[in-house]
Design goal:
6 helices; alpha+beta; six-stranded antiparallel β-sheet; 38% helix
Length: 162
């Protein structure tokens, strides 16, 4: 592990710890947006066995999700399993981990999405107030987050993984 990625992991861990306080989270992942491929690469995860660092998602990203989080640069809320299933191909694994609700918060650098934080908790755990709490954590840590994402350059020849 390089010094740069260790520094990034410290920032991501601090944000994870803050998210556990409010709004609460069981599964947390940090995803880097790679616009050249319209893909998301996992840089940090609370569950490395199920969701390994380095994994990428492209084809299973829902157009509605992309429109909200990437194009409109707004948080996404799926408060229950039904709405989560509409968007995520891995909803069965998510459910096995005890999760049934998700908040995705885009991280912006100069108006561009550089990454997305994924927070998952039990079904019914998240409300609009939870989204606001998650956005507040991102805003308090924005400089560290944007620097952490910038420390991970991305090539344009990636791969589809979990």
């Amino acid at each position: 592990m390089t010094e740069t990625s260790m520094k990034s992991d410290v920032v991501f861990q601090q944000v994870f710890d803050a998210m556990r306080e409010d709004p609460g989270v069981i599964l947390f992942t940090v995803l880097q947006w790679i616009p050249e491929r319209s893909s998301l690469r996992r840089l940090f995860t609370s569950h490395p066995t199920e969701y390994p660092v380095g994994g990428e998602k492209t084809v299973e990203i829902s157009p509605g999700w992309l429109g909200t989080v990437i194009e409109d640069k707004k948080p996404f809320l799926a408060p229950d399993l039904a709405s989560l299933r509409e968007v995520f191909a891995d909803s069965e694994l998510i459910q096995r981990l005890g999760c049934g609700a998700v908040i995705n918060v885009p991280v912006l650098d100069g108006g561009n999405v550089v990454g997305v934080l994924a927070l998952l908790d039990a079904e019914g755990s998240y409300t609009q107030q939870s989204v606001e709490a998650a956005v507040a954590v991102v805003n308090r840590n924005l400089t560290g987050l944007t620097e952490a994402f910038a420390a991970h350059p991305h090539d344009v020849h990636g791969k589809d993984t979990i």
